[in-house]
Design a protein that fits this description.
- This is Histidine kinase.
- It comes from Planococcus halocryophilus.
- Keywords: Kinase, Transferase.
- One of its GO terms (molecular function) is kinase activity.
- It contains eleven helices and nine strands.
- It is of the alpha/beta class.
- The protein has an eight-stranded mixed β-barrel, surrounded by five helices.
- Strand 1 and strand 2 form a beta hairpin.
- The longest helix has 21 residues.
- Bound molecules: ligand C2E and magnesium ion (MG) (3 copies).
Length: 281
């Protein structure tokens, strides 16, 4: 409590810091430089319509190639970026680059593809979130319906009032909103009625042992039925095997993202993947 009183106390606390906080201070400084030094990049994971085997979209996933540590997982550095607020400039960079890349893919003839971008709840605390998104759409010339924003339930409910208002503004722009990791949050289902949501993404944890695990099978089926009855789109995430795919297709879930089709890919590899999937005659 007396921490804020003087720098001496601050110093004292520092010497007591855990490895975990040392690590996060290290990451914070390194991440700060990462943006300037071009160490960040985006990989894209294809989303495929399993009925036609055509690509419908791709999720942009952030990658950090650290000069000495190599690839650092977003699971590790996104929380640091959120705590420090660095997620705001990084998130803007992600959105701009994902939209630029989509523009390129559209120009190459994949004119129905969408791009999904993960937004952090922290970005919704910024007053200029909506103008920022709007200006990126204008700058890149992407039609709003091809931009899909992903938010987890926990992010939506961290600051519900502010987030809901901004979600409505995003929706009013014509952008689509998906609930990421659906089924893992702690919220009631009632919100699906009042929130401007287009898509449910079934969390990949429910794909595990789906043929033998009765609970995972029941949860997955229920989410698909729920989406169908509420007129929402549904995407299954983390689909790795033909058996999982068959299970999902038997329940009329055809939008698939997962290693079964492809891991997240660097842009050149994504372009090759699309060409293989949809050969041009
Ligand atoms: P997410 O949005 O739920 O992304 C899906 C994660 O599942 C990705 O991990 C992806 O590589 C992984 N995945 C996809 N298919 C499979 C599969 O078949 N099997 C397995 N085992 N894994 C699969 P990744 O790329 O490590 O991203 C982790 C999380 O980091 C993301 O989860 C998202 O919450 C966050 N993240 C990534 N990029 C961004 C970003 O630009 N902004 C924000 N705010 N968060 C991001
Ligand atoms: Mg996501
Ligand atoms: Mg997810
Ligand atoms: Mg996730």
């Amino acid at each position: 409590k007396s921490k804020e009183k003087s720098g001496t106390y601050h110093h004292f606390f520092k010497s007591e810091m855990s490895d975990w906080s040392m690590e996060s201070i290290y990451l914070e400084n390194a991440l700060y430089k990462a943006l300037e030094n071009d160490e960040l990049s985006l990989h894209y994971q294809p989303q495929v319509d399993s009925k036609t085997n055509r690509i419908i979209g791709a999720e942009a996933l952030l990658r950090w190639n650290h000069p000495t540590r190599g690839m650092v997982s977003p699971i590790e550095f996104i929380p640091v970026a959120e705590e420090t607020g660095l997620i705001v400039p990084i998130g803007k960079w992600v959105l701009l680059n994902a939209c630029k890349q989509l523009k390129k893919l559209h120009a190459q003839g994949n004119s129905n593809m969408s791009v999904s971008v993960n937004l952090s709840g922290r970005q919704f605390e910024e007053d200029d979130l909506i103008p920022m998104i709007e200006s990126i759409l204008v700058e890149t010339g992407i039609a709003p319906e091809f931009l899909h924003i992903e938010l987890t339930e926990n992010q939506i409910f961290k600051n519900t009032h502010v987030t809901l208002e901004k979600m409505r503004e995003i929706k009013a722009l014509g952008i689509k909103i998906a609930v990421d990791d659906f089924g893992t949050g702690y919220s009631s289902l009632g919100y699906l009625k009042n929130f401007p949501i287009d898509t449910l993404k079934i969390d990949r944890s429910f794909m595990f042992d789906i043929l033998t695990d009765k609970d995972n099978a029941a949860i997955t089926s229920t989410i698909i039925t729920l989406a169908q009855n509420l007129n929402l789109n549904v995407i299954a995430e983390g689909v790795e095997t033909a058996e999982q795919l068959e299970f999902l297709m038997a329940k009329n879930c055809f939008n698939i993202q997962g290693y079964y089709y492809s891991k997240p890919l660097p842009v050149e590899a994504l372009e090759n993947y699309i060409d293989i999937l949809t050969p041009k005659v």
